[in-house]
Please model this.
Amino acid sequence: MRFILFTAVILILIVAGPVWGFADLASVVEDQLNHLDLDDFYAYLEQMDRETRELLPRWDPVGGEKGISLDFSGLPRRLAAILWREVVVNFNLLSKLIILAVIASVLAHFQQAWSGESLGRLVENVIYLVLTGLVIQNFLFTLNLARATLDRATGFIYSLLPAVFTLLTAAGGLSLTTICHPVVWTGIGLVVQVIKDLVLPLIFFAGTVGLVSFLAEELTMTRLAGLARKLAVGLSGLLVSIFLGLITVQGVSVAVADGVSLRAAKFVTGTFVPLVGSALADSMELAAGCSLLIKNALGAFGAVAAVIICLHPAVKILAVSLIYQIASALVQPLGRQRLSAALQEAGATLMVVFAAVAVTGLMFFFCLTILIGLGNMTVMVR
Amino acid sequence: MRETFRSLLALILLGGFLELLLPQDEMRRYSRLVVGLLVLLSLMRMVFNAGREFPLGRLELGLNGTEPSPSTSFILQEGERVLRAGAAKAEEKLTPVLETRANNLLRAVTGDHGLTTKLAVGEGGKVVGATIVLNKEPGLPPEALARLAGEIFGISPETVEVEKVFVGKGEGKED
Model:
């Protein structure tokens, strides 16, 4: 009897090797995908406009190693095409700005000819006022676009996060989800809300004050405008850095703990139940691995998509900013320094709006990338 | 806040037009000073108002995540469900392989090359029972075989059935 049991144990050790050579990963991945609630996420993708959807990568978690497919070589070309198209669309604005500048310049020369200095200055100021109104209207449009973009990107991330955290839990990151889910959810909400309610109004304040103060030459407030602009940039940068730092520091310590506890659980299951124990541990490991695969694909897709969702309107804002800077460069030779400086100021302000949207997009990108990395770290420790 | 901002802009514009309207004398210098002081006052009022009227409510909304968050416990449950679904599928795929390996093992132990093992898989893909079908007399008592199988599959020997299908030497079933 003892001999038989000994032989059996030896045989068990021989046959209980890796059993997953046959495993059809795709079927497990598909089964897990069927159990995953991605309705909100798909609904959000459906809502997007056609142009943004065309830029998004194709997501194929069942496609194994591919995960997502993004045309990296084509993306810059398409973005450049969008930028050029927006610049062309905004040529209308450029022509208005240049015509106003030319009128102001011609009137200034008439003023010199007629020696009616006050009248000439008055007309120039009226033209400047018209220009200021045009630019402020443009500011408002751009800020609304920025707000809508932030709302859209946040909505997209919120539709994605539950699925990412569910997969993170399935991949063994229980503590990671418990700690990071509230922090990420609250952090994103808070940062975006502060950018919408504080940073964007500060940029608008900076732009408007800077622009209007050019009107009263002796009452310039360009320093105040510069300070508001610096505050806006600093605040958004600081908030994003704090948020990303917080989830990284919290996540790294917890991810290691998750990995160690999973390793212990696998050791216990695999060691104390001879043949089936190792198979059970293997099947759990396979399921966790498949969850990780889906999470990585979903996270990578989300990270790229979040950047693209922000990038598309950001390119539009950049185009308007470029138009102002081009107009400033073209107007300068006409001798209207005040007008040229004001247009430069408007361009710089819009560039800050672009930066705020871009920083938020990058925050979403890094947040999802960190979550992917932390999930992978759990498995690496395991 | 919006009103203060508007009045600030209006003041700056007023300053600009006063410069145009007033003659180039002491009057213009004084008016510039007065408008400058008014702008300063307006700015200070704006800073105080910004502190008082800061949209804390909206910040709270941000703290709550601007959109209702699914609770962490719900997400953990969902994760567990997805993991179990994947594991069940994996074990479903695994069962035939386990049966083959168990067959090979028990055939080597009993010397019965026609021996077959059927595994009963319960909820979550776990092995809950086994049936061993013998084609010839094994070299050990059926109880020992059941105990061995129990050890192999991590189940109680009582859940292992040993069936003898060979003719002449007591065809039947033993638990």
